[in-house]
Amino acid sequence: MLESLIAYILGGVIGNTAFAFLKGYIPEERLEQIQKLLKQGKKTEAEQIAREELETQPELQTQLEKRLTKVQNTRLPHTSSTTLYGRTKELAMLENAWAANQTTNILVLKAMGGTGKTALIKTFLDDFHAANAFKGAEAIYTWSFYSQGSSEERQVSADEFFEQALAFFDYQGEPISSAHERGIKLAELINQQRTLLVLDGLEPLQHPVGVMHGDLKDKGLIALLQQLAAQNQGLCLISSRQAVTELHNKPLVYTHNLEQLATSDGVKLLQSFGVTGKSSELEAAVKELHGHALALNLLGNYLKTVYQGDIRQRDKIPALSDEREEGNHAQHVMAAYEIHLKDSTALSILYMMGLFDRPASSGAIQCLRDANIAGLSDKLGDNTDWLYAVQDLRNQQLL
User: Fold this and answer.
1) How many CB atoms lie within 10 A of CB 286?
2) Other residues' Cβ atoms within 10 Å of the Cβ of residue 251
């Protein structure tokens, strides 16, 4: 516990809220000394000062234990790989944005689908959890809007997000009917401590580009983000397929366009699935897919499953190297899977999943199973066949 408290103090000298709290127990000149030592890279000496203060002040220990980080990080979607390949510069950028929170209030990761935005965020969060005292964060709250679905005509709402977030940040008042006022109140609560707020997959709450300039649809989110852009003790991290227009030209907001994987990193990703072949062939495959992370994941699994990982067999996937439209590489790999899984329970399950543009509930899936629809759920077999097929699809990272 003592080491966690020391790490909290070292992280706390960066944030205004935590710094103000620490000044109530530790002389300001000692806190400034810790800051100076950290800037000089003398972490051991800074830790010793923090240890001395904790050992001589039992009340400081008690109060810090009460302030240790509260965390909700279960709302991000599953990603196909547990290892992130490449993205070293991007991870450093995220670390710097958190450490230098006085210059970055909101950071937006913008990229096409399947580029690896969520995987990057989850790796960044994993680093937080591995660090003592969560690198000075006093609260970590994550939310994914992918559950809202991706259909443009679908009515979406941030109501559930605000309900859950206000409760997490201990809002005790009457229900707030005004969306704008909910956003203002949540920003106020977030700013009561140094918070890492993650909003993943924001695009369902945005109008399509070209329609109302891609503006946000929810007034509460607009108010929340505009408030955090102006004042934020921590960091708000957003991922989306399009820019957040309401944040344009805000001085403490940074938008990063996430590029596709570098060729060398794409090769490592393919090799992680057991794909083998000449370096020139592996590099050519990555370039054919333009470094698209999702397409490379699908290709690696497909080659491993169907062709024992032989990279030369990729030419049996029609038009794989010809497409440049967003998502089409991945679609061609899935088309090859469709041929490979023909007339199987696994293919019927994939057809069923394709009916949903958001996470499907077990009840909705069971309804489709029970309906015995021709060409969809009439070839599922018994429950044993279903369970084996589901496990097989998970092993291939298709579910």
Assistant:
1) 24
2) 9
